[in-house]
């Protein structure tokens, strides 16, 4: 349908029918749902009637070709105008084939594989009847205490923006041309990743300058890639809840960024304007959210109950309702739902595509590239003829899919034990739990030590269970539970090589782990093929190449800690720095334990001959940077070469360094390559005090290296034409 046909459809609708399009309910409300009628908890007092449900515009959480076709059929039979539902679900890092959590994918620095993971997830979801995914989540975060750091790709604006574009391309592609795609919905707008104290849903307060410089670009990148929807964040931003924030939603998102897609609230966030204290009741919540431009209310009933009277009392213009409904009808139209309301839901295709070998293979490859080797003192790779003991709560644990993996299943998941079994003779792999995640018994410990004592090398699987991470999963203490650290210490006392494999959703305080283990692999929540991917690295079939996309603090006392900090007026490492009166802690270092961009390989890579094509450029010119990188190891491997820039003097303070580009190269043993980067004036721009986004003439430093710390620097100038 064209716009005028959509408008004439809109004009046929009653006000109640229009309001129905502005509401999203979970599957239990709908006829034909497998969990129909299981209205429990807060859902019971939503006061939703049958005539409301018959007019509802979208459904949250349904999947499965049979179920979604069933629900759609029954809904359209009941709807006076036969309007189809939109089916929306959280497919963040996989649908049935679960890929590593996005923070892990961020550590792969592999944009192509990230895009592929989203594309495969979209294919599995589309044939299961899903139309929209609530992804990518691009909330930049410098807060490892926050449970949802696992859901985005880390602390850096440039890297997060690049992944945002890749994920949107993978999920959504060209909705009207490409098969097996779903509309994407970037979230959570905005700055949800900066809650005070790292406590989920907590206050976010920052300058417009910091917001625009660091936190907003990844959302914008997703929208520039064509992302169809935006989801509001739970948090307040500078005193106003995002979901009722006209400045953020209308002025910035819609007017400045020209976003005319669908804006959906997060679950219950419209009604939460009441506890936030900016709305007296649900009626005022409905008014404020609509005035802020929120098209769809997710899982509360303020719109159903009050929009009619708000319009009748002239507190809301019906034209505002029409605008919101038209955006939703346009999305349904773009998805082809008026011609084919079942879209690509197809049971035979589900059989073909879900957990297909190609999907598992991609999941295994991406999981291996997402693993970051933090330490290796000649303990890895393992030899296939040596007896190994596999110990710990994650030795054979299927809880390695991570949060937002509701479509995945334990029986499809490859554990570390299953993965390692592929590489060793049966009697060369001994296994014992050793402890639970947070508790353990003396007997478990004894059995573990006994088992380990019979082996030549010990692999210990440690970590957080997945509900210690994710939404509402904030932790003030970011170490592993004491019982696990004690297990590690006792295993080390046996005097054999100990390799720690970590399964977790946040940067941890890993000091004790690094102290006791001879090698440490950060495996995150690696997904369905996690056990195979980690075993591929343990036994050297894959050379680790992952690099941290989020700093690992020395301790939680440093948080928020991130590589692109400002120098302060009293930098601790200045040549003339005083002993005491500098920016420092008395009890811990300033630096992260492991910095952004850090990761080891079985090789070493030698960087040399960094050179610039010129020492100054005008705004119209480009500067190229060359660096030679040599693989001085004995294995082929991939190296992520990083380019950072520092603006030495600005009208506002400028970070000590900022990632501006990166590339991943493959090098055979002994092979060297010259890597080239291009720097343009646009990469030198920043937000000035008046929020004007531009560059200044002046001196810059360019840094190239394997991470944000071990870099080589050169200088250049930007001069006026
Ligand atoms: C949750 C999350 C959001 C998700 C939504 C629907 O509360 O904050 O990311 O998309 O509800 O499940």
From TrEMBL:
<dbReference type="InterPro" id="IPR036962">
    <property type="entry name" value="Glyco_hydro_3_N_sf"/>
</dbReference>
<dbReference type="InterPro" id="IPR019800">
    <property type="entry name" value="Glyco_hydro_3_AS"/>
</dbReference>
<keyword id="KW-0326">Glycosidase</keyword>
<dbReference type="Pfam" id="PF00933">
    <property type="entry name" value="Glyco_hydro_3"/>
</dbReference>
<dbReference type="InterPro" id="IPR017853">
    <property type="entry name" value="GH"/>
</dbReference>
<keyword id="KW-0732">Signal</keyword>
<comment type="similarity">
    <text>Belongs to the glycosyl hydrolase 3 family.</text>
</comment>
<dbReference type="GO" id="GO:0008422">
    <property type="term" value="F:beta-glucosidase activity"/>
</dbReference>
<feature type="domain" description="Fibronectin type III-like">
    <location>
        <begin position="639"/>
        <end position="708"/>
    </location>
</feature>
<dbReference type="Pfam" id="PF01915">
    <property type="entry name" value="Glyco_hydro_3_C"/>
</dbReference>
<dbReference type="InterPro" id="IPR001764">
    <property type="entry name" value="Glyco_hydro_3_N"/>
</dbReference>
<protein>
    <recommendedName>
        <fullName>beta-glucosidase</fullName>
        <ecNumber>3.2.1.21</ecNumber>
    </recommendedName>
</protein>
<dbReference type="Pfam" id="PF14310">
    <property type="entry name" value="Fn3-like"/>
</dbReference>
<dbReference type="InterPro" id="IPR013783">
    <property type="entry name" value="Ig-like_fold"/>
</dbReference>
<dbReference type="InterPro" id="IPR036881">
    <property type="entry name" value="Glyco_hydro_3_C_sf"/>
</dbReference>
<dbReference type="InterPro" id="IPR051915">
    <property type="entry name" value="Cellulose_Degrad_GH3"/>
</dbReference>
<dbReference type="InterPro" id="IPR026891">
    <property type="entry name" value="Fn3-like"/>
</dbReference>
<dbReference type="InterPro" id="IPR002772">
    <property type="entry name" value="Glyco_hydro_3_C"/>
</dbReference>
<keyword id="KW-0378">Hydrolase</keyword>
């Amino acid at each position: 349908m064209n716009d005028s046909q959509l408008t004439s459809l809109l004009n046929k609708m009653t006000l109640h029918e229009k309001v129905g399009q502005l509401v999203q309910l979970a599957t239990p409300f709908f006829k034909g749902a497998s969990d129909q009628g299981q209205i429990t908890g807060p859902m019971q007092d939503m006061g939703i009637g049958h005539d409301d449900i018959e007019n509802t515009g979208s459904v949250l959480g349904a999947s499965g070709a049979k179920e979604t076709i069933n629900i759609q059929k029954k809904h359209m039979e009941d709807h006076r105008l036969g309007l189809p539902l939109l089916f929306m679900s959280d497919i963040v890092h996989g649908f049935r084939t679960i890929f590593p959590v996005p923070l892990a994918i961020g550590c792969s620095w592999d944009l192509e594989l990230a895009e592929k993971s989203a594309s495969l997830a979209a294919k599995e979801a589309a044939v299961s009847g899903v139309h929209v995914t609530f992804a990518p989540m691009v909330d930049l975060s410098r807060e490892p205490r926050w449970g949802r750091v696992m859901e985005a790709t880390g602390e850096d604006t440039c890297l997060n923006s690049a992944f945002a574009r890749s994920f949107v391309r993978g999920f959504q592609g060209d909705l009207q041309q490409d098969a097996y795609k779903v509309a994407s919905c970037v979230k959570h707008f905005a700055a949800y990743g900066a809650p005070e104290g790292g406590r989920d849903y907590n206050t976010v307060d920052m300058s417009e300058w910091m917001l625009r410089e660091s936190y907003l670009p990844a959302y914008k990148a997703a929208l520039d890639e064509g992302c169809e929807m935006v989801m509001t964040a739970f948090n307040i931003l500078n005193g106003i809840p995002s979901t009722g924030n006209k400045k953020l939603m209308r002025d910035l998102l819609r007017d400045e960024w020209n976003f005319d897609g669908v804006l959906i609230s997060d679950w219950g966030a419209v009604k939460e304007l009441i506890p936030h204290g900016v709305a007296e009741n649900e009626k005022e919540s409905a008014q404020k959210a609509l005035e802020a431009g929120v098209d769809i209310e997710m899982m509360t009933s303020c719109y159903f109950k009050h929009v009619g009277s708000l319009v009748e009392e002239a507190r809301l213009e019906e034209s505002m309702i029409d605008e919101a409904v038209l955006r939703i009808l346009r999305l349904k139209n773009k998805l082809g739902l008026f011609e084919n309301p079942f879209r690509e839901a197809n049971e035979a295709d589900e059989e073909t595509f879900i957990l297909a070998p190609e999907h598992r293979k991609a999941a295994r490859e991406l999981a291996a590239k997402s693993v970051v080797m933090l330490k290796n003192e000649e303990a890895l790779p393992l030899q296939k003829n040596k007896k190994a003991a596999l110990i710990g709560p994650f030795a054979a644990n299927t809880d390695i899919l991570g949060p937002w993996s509701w479509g995945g299943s334990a029986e499809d998941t490859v554990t570390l034990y299953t993965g390692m079994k592929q590489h060793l003779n049966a009697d060369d792999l001994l296994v014992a739990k050793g402890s639970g995640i947070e508790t353990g018994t003396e007997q478990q410990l004894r059995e573990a030590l006994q088992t380990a004592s019979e082996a030549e090398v010990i692999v210990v699987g440690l970590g957080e269970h997945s509900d210690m991470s994710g939404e509402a999963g904030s932790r003030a203490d970011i170490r592993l539970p004491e019982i696990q650290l004690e297990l590690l210490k006792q295993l080390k006392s046996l005097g054999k090589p100990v390799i720690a494999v970590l399964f977790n959703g946040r940067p941890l305080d890993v000091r004790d782990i690094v102290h006791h283990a001879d090698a440490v692999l950060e495996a995150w929540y690696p997904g369905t093929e996690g056990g195979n991917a980690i075993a591929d690295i343990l036994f050297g079939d894959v050379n680790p190449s992952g690099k941290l996309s989020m700093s690992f603090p020395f301790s939680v006392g440093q948080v928020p800690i991130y590589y692109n900090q400002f120098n302060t007026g009293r930098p601790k490492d200045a040549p003339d720095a005083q002993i005491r009166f500098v920016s420092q802690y008395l009890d811990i270092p300033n630096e992260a334990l492991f910095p952004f961009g850090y990761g080891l390989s079985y090789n070493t890579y030698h960087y040399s001959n960094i050179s610039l094509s010129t020492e100054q450029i005008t705004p119209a010119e480009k500067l190229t940077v060359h660096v030679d990188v040599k693989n001085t190891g004995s294995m082929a491997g991939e190296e992520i070469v990083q380019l950072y820039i520092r603006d030495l003097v600005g009208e506002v303070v400028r970070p000590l360094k900022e990632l501006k580009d990166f590339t991943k190269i493959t090098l055979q043993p002994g092979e060297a390559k010259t890597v080239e980067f291009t720097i343009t004036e646009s990469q030198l721009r920043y937000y000035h005090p008046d929020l004007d986004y531009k560059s200044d003439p002046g001196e810059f430093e360019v840094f190239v290296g394997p991470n944000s710390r071990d870099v080589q620097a050169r200088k250049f100038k930007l001069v006026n034409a």
